Amino acid sequence: MKNLEAKIEERKREAIQKKIESKAQAIAEFLGSGYSCHDPREEISRHFRFHQDKFLITDQFCSLPERGTESGIDVIHLGHLVYQSRKYYVDPEVRITSYIPGEWEAEFNLLYEKSQRVQNGGETRPEALTEEVQLRARWGL
Question: Can you give the residue range of the structural domain that contains 50?
Fold first, then answer.
């Protein structure tokens, strides 16, 4: 069991080194759709979702002054969860709960590069998918 725990810790370090979390956030925000808001009571929330071809990436974040922050990031490739992290109000540390390295990372990194070009104004944000396209994708039609 100790060997397994050591391997899991190594996977977590690998995900941190590769910056999977921040890349997923950038892809969801700059290539996906969603919102970010900040209200007068200092509550901050954001929810971004990128869904295209082989990837579904979600980024959710909520910060309440009296409770702290809660967040979650999911990266799904071809229907399989390949990265997941959670941060809960009571725990200041982000917890990587799943990371499966693989060939998906090459395409993921290309998406990240594209998100950086959009963020820096070198490329325009992709148009949101129409409701019809989203329904077709969701039902495989």
Answer: 2-139
Distance of CA 102 to the CA centre of its chain: 17
Rounded average pLDDT over 76-88 = 94
Q: How many CA atoms lie within 13 A of 113 on its CB side?
A: 6
Tokens of 99: 């990371």
Measure the CA dihedral 106/25/13/74, to 10°: -90
Residue with structure tokens 């039609």? 141
Contact indicator for 63, 44 with CB cutoff of 8 Å: yes
DSSP assignment of 47-64, as one string?
EEEEEETTEEEEEEEEEE
Distances, alpha carbon 21 to alpha carbons 18, 55, 100, in Å: 9, 15, 13
pTM score over 0.90: no
- Residue 12 and residue 99 in contact, taking contact as beta carbons nearer than 8 Å: yes
Count how many domains the chain has: 1
Phi and psi (nearest 5°) for 62? -145, 130
